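Input (structure):
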């Protein structure tokens, strides 16, 4: 049997009418900010006070998009008769986000917790050269880093905390003077 002329058009209009009556799922992005899941990977924030310029993040980066410059500074001895020490001082810390593939290796290898994921994702630029963000901008993003999730209350206490608590209790018990003995019935 041949198809009725215009039946395809009627089917198309029926689909259109059905979808017009449903609630839309489109988010109006610039006007309504999306609800991001916790620990979203957006941009990398730098906690500069923890950075020791060990260069692990730059060496492990598969894209070579982290640029670090530093100089050595002499620190006076901590105690009299001690010797002077030298330490690295951070001069430049920059990440080129036009090269970064957001793998997170730099954050994972940082032994001093100086790099963190920030949920910020709105940092587009009109010029690709402006996507190299220096330490001032990376420090600003540090304040958008969410606090770590709470520990599971049903989880076991870490061994380190248990050992430290036990040592502190022993020390506190040793420092307390013994309580005076209570007088017995015959004594006054």
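Output (sequence):
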């Amino acid at each position: 049997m041949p198809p009725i002329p215009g039946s395809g058009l009627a089917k198309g209009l029926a689909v259109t009418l059905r979808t017009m009556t449903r609630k839309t799922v489109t988010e109006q992005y610039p006007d309504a900010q999306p609800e991001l899941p916790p620990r979203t990977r957006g941009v990398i924030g730098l906690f500069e006070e923890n950075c020791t310029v060990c260069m692990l993040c730059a060496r492990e980066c598969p894209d070579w998009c982290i640029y670090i410059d530093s100089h050595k500074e002499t620190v006076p001895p901590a105690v009299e008769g001690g010797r002077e020490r030298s330490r690295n001082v951070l001069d430049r810390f920059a990440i080129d986000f036009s090269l970064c593939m957001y793998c997170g290796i730099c954050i994972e290898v940082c032994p001093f917790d100086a790099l963190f994921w920030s949920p910020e994702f709105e940092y587009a630029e009109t010029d690709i050269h402006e996507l190299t963000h220096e330490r001032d901008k990376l420090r600003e993003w540090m304040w958008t880093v969410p606090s770590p999730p709470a520990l599971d209350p049903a989880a076991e206490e870490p061994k380190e905390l248990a050992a430290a608590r036990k040592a502190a209790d022993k020390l506190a018990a040793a420092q307390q003077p013994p309580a005076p003995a209570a007088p017995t019935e015959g004594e006054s």
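Notes: The chain is about 25% helix and 15% strand. The first strand starts at residue 43 and ends at 46.
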